[in-house]
Amino acid sequence: MFGRGAELMIDDYIEFTKKVKQKLGIDLQLYKETQMKRRLTTLRNKRGFPSFIIYFDALCNDEMLLKEFTDRLTINVSEFYRNPRRWDVLKDRILPMLLQNNGRLSIWSAACSTGEEPYSLALMIKEHFPAAAVQILATDIDELVLSKAQQGVYTEQALKELPNPLRKKYFTKTGSLYKIDDALKKDITFKKHNLLADRYPVHVDLIVCRNVLIYFTDKAKEAIYQNFSNALKTNGVLFVGSTEQIFNPNQFALNLADTFFYQKQ
Ligand SMILES: C[S@@+](CC[C@H](N)C(=O)[O-])C[C@H]1O[C@@H](n2cnc3c(N)ncnc32)[C@H](O)[C@@H]1O
Predict the structure, then answer these.
(1) pLDDT at 73
(2) How far is the CA of 1 from the centre of ligand 1 (A)?
(3) Which of 139, 84, 129 is nearest to 107 (CA)?
(4) Euclidean distance between the first and the last CA atom of the chain, given in angstroms as a whole number
(5) Any atom of ligand 1 within 6 Å of the Cβ of 240
(6) pTM of the full predicted structure?
(7) What is the sign of the dihedral through the CA atoms of 177, 152, 39 and 241?
(8) Is residue 240 within 8 Å of 56, Cβ to Cβ?
């Protein structure tokens, strides 16, 4: 049904994914192929390379091209209190439950992008649970977004769900940009981590991993759910994105605690 040309194109992409894995340690085959291939083909064509193999050779010899490529691999859009109703559930139900027996919390914001998520956590805890001692690990595969996260400077768009009094209290506005209060940084450690390859932390009370699992294949997602379950303490909670419900959480020793929240059995 498909001609030789189509076969060659498929091989070209598969060959490319193998080389990228060797060079960068990123396994593109664990990301949904149609989406990823479409994004990368657009980029490759924009730069005028007729095949992925030729594009790969160019990536090896041109730092700027390589940076552009790694930027495109990762979709970094984020915002404070993304899907605010879910953050209300976190504040009103989940955090009080986690803090019931212990005033300390170990939190992991996995795939944290430019930092809006871990800062939302730090801000919510400071505002509503000031006595709690928290440690927030904030990780992402992309070093560039992590350095932006450490700077903590945001546009109006990233703050659109954040109530005005909180903007005033926790940000300094310079021109059109908002800089986060340094006091919110002290409980957060930013670190590079690949969800598909690196070791996971342990003894975590709350894992927040939102809007990244949608890019992965079912096989990759299942491995991640199992790793998250292993990383959580008993009764710890996993908070996922608003299109990322887990269909059979029990197989990972997780129970539904609320919509998009799963508790370790
Ligand atoms: C759309 S952002 C989500 C940011 C935030 N969690 C939120 O919901 O607003 C997706 C993030 O996943 C990161 N990412 C993609 N693949 C990853 C991987 N294999 N391991 C860790 N992070 C990854 C990207 O770099 C990007 O910053």
Answers:
(1) 81
(2) 37
(3) 139
(4) 49
(5) no
(6) 0.90
(7) negative
(8) no
